[in-house]
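STRUCTURE:
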């Protein structure tokens, strides 16, 4: 997404801007980043004859999805798997936001997704592969915190990825604020304007 990429590139205080633009539970209009989400989880999708979801759907732990992402002027095919979700504390939230009162009862959740470049041109600019990632908690979308994942343990900094070629993998992360004590977490990722793939994880 252009806004997210500019935030990362120019070093704007990202966490503050993100909270102003995204509200927990799907935003003021309950729409997702693609404008299609109604704020309620929809993990089910039609399956192909092989049993794999054709356009999004629930995936088992460790199961990968394949999708195309427009990187610059070319489309790149990635294999994607959500590895885990790290859940922080309210103390961590206070470090991320300018006004902790507005995020009371919220904790950061960091989704780790492994992207493997399968086909297409080498990615020469900051990759957009992870831009369609969302984290849902107990059936509601969390609030995106832009620029908070680059320093997280085990996450690659997108700004430092150069010449991403076929066969290479990177772990790209996204951080969302979710209600403390959420019992079920979901990582959503998919091609733009298509139903997402969904990996489920237990809450903390």
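SEQUENCE:
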């Amino acid at each position: 997404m252009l806004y997210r990429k500019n935030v990362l590139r120019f070093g704007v205080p990202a966490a503050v801007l993100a909270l102003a633009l995204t509200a927990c539970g799907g935003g003021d209009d309950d729409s997702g980043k693609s404008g299609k989400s109604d704020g309620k989880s929809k993990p089910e999708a039609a399956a192909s004859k092989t049993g794999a979801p054709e356009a999004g759907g629930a995936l088992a732990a460790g199961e990968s999805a394949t999708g195309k992402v427009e990187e610059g002027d070319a489309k790149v095919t990635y294999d994607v798997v959500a590895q885990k979700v790290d859940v922080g504390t309210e103390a961590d939230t206070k470090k991320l936001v300018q006004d902790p009162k507005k995020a009371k009862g919220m904790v950061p959740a960091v989704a780790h997704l492994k992207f493997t470049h399968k086909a297409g041109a080498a990615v020469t600019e900051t990759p957009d592969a992870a831009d369609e990632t969302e984290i849902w908690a107990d059936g509601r979308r969390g609030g995106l915190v832009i620029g908070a994942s680059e320093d997280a343990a085990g996450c690659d900094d997108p700004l430092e990825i150069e010449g991403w070629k076929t066969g290479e993998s990177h772990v790209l992360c996204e951080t969302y604020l979710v209600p403390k004590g959420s019992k079920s977490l979901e990582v959503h990722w998919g091609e733009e304007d298509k139903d997402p793939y969904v990996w489920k994880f237990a809450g903390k």
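REMARK: The chain is about 10% helix and 35% strand.
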